[in-house]
Design a protein that fits this description.
Layout lengths: L13 H30 L9 H26 L5 H22 L6 H26 L41 E7 L5 E11 L5 E7 L9 E8 L3 E9 L2 E8 L7 E10 L3
Helix pairs in contact: 1-2, 1-3, 2-3, 2-4, 3-4
Length: about 270
């Protein structure tokens, strides 16, 4: 059964995203400036009276919210299109600013309970801020892994189409076919939905997604296998796998310089 449909590919407003990234960078710079100023005043002896616990706790909460917000905004606006160096800088600089500010405000004579609560708030904020980055860097982890069950991807990261055996031209759908699905039933009663999916990328775009609905849905989340058939080198991850559908996140290894597309083959099989 051949079905033509739209493969949903996110296309953020680049100008708005760039303005947001610059704003996040400016807030990070202000955090560093505040840390340098407070640290200098501490070294100069201008800060001698410890803050009252409520005021210290409020300062800690404000610092944690600012640091988490800066990194969250950067990750959402960059959408994986920024250089890895900038991603790491935007992760490390707020942490450095928070640590310097906390050290400068931890004056001798501060109430032990207030100081412990102050550092606890900062620690929670830093854990929340670093957790997505660390989880994304761990091998073999996907967003779907923590939601339902491990998903099999063949291969987890695709390679250039030229690195695989060439497919017959008749086996590759035309460029205007965005989805081509086939549902079948095996002798053991299990069902399988397989097909080809095409995601279009415009010039300057690097990330996108494909959504596929399972209709009728499986009784439970199926086993999934994914392979790239054509297009530029692309990393493919399963963002969400449910009995009634799947979302695949695609990321080109290099930003598209001209409009192009990626052809993906998948197979979802019900468990016996």
């Amino acid at each position: 059964m051949g079905i033509r449909g739209a493969a949903a590919v996110g296309k953020p407003d680049r100008s708005a995203a760039e303005i947001g990234q610059w704003s996040a960078g400016a807030v990070a710079a202000l955090l560093l400036l505040a840390a340098a100023l407070v640290g200098w005043r501490r070294l100069a002896g201008a800060l001698s009276s410890p803050l009252h616990p409520p005021l210290l706790l409020a300062a800690g909460a404000a610092m944690a919210v600012a640091a988490v917000g800066v990194r969250l905004a950067w990750r959402r606006l960059s959408a994986g299109n920024s250089a890895p160096l900038f991603d790491w800088l935007m992760a490390i600089l707020p942490s450095s600013a928070v640590l310097a500010l906390a050290a400068a405000l931890s004056l001798p004579g501060t109430a032990a309970g207030g100081l412990a609560a102050f550092w606890a708030v900062l620690a929670v904020g830093e854990i929340l801020a670093w957790q997505p980055l660390v989880r994304r860097r761990l091998p073999g982890r996907s967003k779907a892994a923590g939601r339902s069950h491990p998903v099999r991807l063949d291969p987890p990261e695709t390679v250039a189409a030229g690195h695989r055996p060439a497919r017959p031209l008749a086996d590759v759908p035309p460029g205007d076919v965005l989805q081509q699905l086939t549902r079948s039933r095996a002798a053991d009663g299990s069902e399988q939905l397989s097909g080809r999916l095409r995601a279009a990328f415009s010039a300057g775009q690097r990330s996108g997604s494909i959504h596929v609905a399972f209709c009728p849905p499986f009784a439970r989340s199926p086993e999934l296998a994914v392979e790239q058939l054509d297009g530029p080198p692309t990393r493919i991850k399963t963002a969400q796998l449910l009995p009634y559908g799947v979302r695949l996140d695609l990321k080109l290894t290099a930003t598209a310089e001209a409009p192009q597309s990626v052809l993906v083959e998948f197979s979802a099989r019900s468990k016996g």
